[in-house]
Amino acid sequence: MSRFITISAIATSYFVFAILLNSVGTVILQSINTFDISKPQASSLEGFKDLSIAFVSFFVASIIPRIGYKVALLIGLAIVTFACLLTPLVGDFLVIKLLFACIGGSFALVKISVYSIIGQLSESVKSHSSLLNTIEGIFMLGSLAGYWLFSFYIDSGDAKSTDWLDVYYALAAISLLTLFLVSFSSIYKAEQSSSSTSIYADFINMIKMSYQPLVLIFVISVFLYVLIEQGIGTWLPTFNSEVLGLPTSVSVQMTSIFAAALALGRLLAGQILRYINWYVFLNICLAGMALIILILLPLTQEPTTDLVTSVFNAPAVAYLLPLIGLMMAPIYPVLNSVMLSSLTRSKHAAMTGLIVVFSALGGTTGSVITGFSFQALGGQKAFYLSLIPMGFLVVSLYFFKVATLKNSVLKGNNKAIAQ
Q1: pTM of the predicted model, to two decimals?
Q2: Distance (Å, whole) CA 91 – CA 95
């Protein structure tokens, strides 16, 4: 029973943060309407979220095992509970910025803790992989649920209404319940070895690792991928509203298709990769992404003239464009898997830190660039610009493949020498 409660606690924690993190696109759209701010200003929310994730992950990862994973989870949940309660009470764009900074910093605490707790609960590589995939699947379900939860609080008839902020009362209640669930779970503090390194040493090791050619090419690839994903995913609700002319609530609901496509794409990729080389598969995915952009964006030249009242009578292109998530989904986990498999286990922690940092930087950059492009050029041209980083990613993938092959040869030679 204690194992079940612990798994339920970490799964629920991940579910809550999936809603909060992936609400940024919806909140950007609503902030533009409610607070009468520009798109570049609204895009700053992505920075408050991602940069706080990067900062906390970078500097606090070594502290968390010392204070305990349970304590870290409780701190993260307590922070977001308070921030969610404060947001509708103040009802200002500044407090929303602070909210996303709290969400990002707290998620860093939660993600590091959850991944470590999964290790405590797993007795083998197979059980670890199974539990990790289950938790990540629940994260995607939370992302899906978030779009619909927010849409219930949005008044499409009054763009200036702040009633949508009341959703944070519900989220505060869910966070508080999760906090109590975590407090009753059996999560043990990690044992500290006498040779454990300092925070400063971990920081230096991470910096040194980034200078290696293989790692450098990898982090560039991760940066480019997340730039594309966040640029499209964050601004898709605004695209649906302003370019396709859908009501605000329907625009948000249609974006849930993107999250569903990401979830389905990752599940399917796990099976497909059993039969096809990862490099070939990722290039097929990138080609598919480019084709979706080139084929479907011309269909959005004119906003729909039909009266759209729900997702059931939305135009076909509103369903088809989010399916880019199917092609996009496998790239990030495959890159991470190939990279980590190329390193010794002793380097995995430092590599994970770099993944989090460059993912956060890529997400912020993608959202800000798309926000400025959306404002200056319009939604269609802003999405067309995603073809540029796709092209760069094709190039970086080639060099990444070459670097991994060289690294595997070196590992093989070293093993032969050791024997």
Answers
A1: 0.74
A2: 7
Question: 198-419 in CATH: which number?
Answer: 1.20.1250.20
Residue 386 has pLDDT above 80, yes or no: yes
**Residue 361 to residues 22, 222, 369, 403, Cα–Cα distance (Å):** 16, 10, 12, 23
Provide CATH code, domain 1-188. Answer: 1.20.1250.20
Using one digit for the tens of pLDDT, what is the confidence trace for 24-58? 888 988 888 888 888 888 888 888 988 898 888 77
The rounded distance, in Å, linking the Cα atoms of 279 and 269 is 13
Give CA–CA dist 147/252, Å, rounded: 6
- Position 394: which residue type? V
pLDDT, one tens digit per residue, over 322-357 is 899 989 988 887 887 777 667 665 565 567 667 777
Q: Which residues fall within 8 angstroms of residue 310, CB to CB, at 6 or more apart?
A: 250
Block residue for tokens 């906390």: 56
Helical H runs in 61-153? 64-67, 69-90, 93-121, 125-153
Cβ distance 34 to 203 under 8 Å? no
Residue ranges of the domains in the chain? 1-188, 198-419
d(CA 233, CA 325): 9
Q: Report in angstroms the alpha-carbon separations of 319 from 29, 250, 272.
A: 19, 12, 24
Query: What is the rounded CA–CA span in Å between residue 115 and residue 127?
Result: 13
CB 328, CB 287: distance < 8 Å: no
Residue entry with tokens 């399917």: 268
Sequence-ordered list of residues with C-beta below 8 angstroms from that of 107, at least 6 positions apart, any chain: 17, 20, 21, 53, 76
- Are 1-188 and 198-419 equal in CATH topology? yes
